[in-house]
Design goal:
alpha+beta, Ybab, Chain: A, three-stranded antiparallel sheet, YbaB-like_sf, DNA binding
């Protein structure tokens, strides 16, 4: 019977390690997410990072002749919102099936959910009288 327990514990540990690897891969992917968007017929371009913060704003030189200050401000906001929506969608897609809804937007470090080795695995083995492999 103990051999069956050992096999089951080993299987659970293997499943745990696979999920942990998947979460680490997802975390790495999340850290690199960014998006770009345009407005005002391409005369305004913005880039945002994974948290939706502006990292770049570019204006076509013609924008100053074609848009007033209010229109330019609206174009920047429009492009920013579009890029932020793209980032949110990329994050939802990357996390689908591995993390609770809204975890990406909160900035939670998902890798901390699953430490490299579960703290209680040795205690379980000890209670069952199974030596670690």
């Amino acid at each position: 019977m103990r051999a069956e327990w050992q096999a089951h514990i080993d299987e659970l540990l293997q499943t745990y390690q696979e999920k942990r690897r998947q979460i680490q891969d997802m975390q790495t992917k999340l850290e690199t997410i960014e998006a770009e968007a345009e407005a005002a017929e391409g005369m305004v371009k913005v880039k945002v990072d994974r948290q939706g913060r502006l990292t770049s704003v570019e204006f076509d030189p013609r924008v100053y002749r074609r848009l007033g200050s209010e229109e330019l401000a609206e174009a920047v906001l429009e492009a920013s919102k579009d890029a932020q929506s793209q980032v949110a969608e990329q994050m939802r897609a990357a996390m689908q099936g591995l993390a609770p809804e809204g975890a990406a937007e909160s900035g939670f470090d998902l890798a901390k959910l699953l430490p490299e080795r579960p703290d209680d695995i040795d205690a379980v083995r000890e209670r069952l009288g199974i030596l670690p492999r």
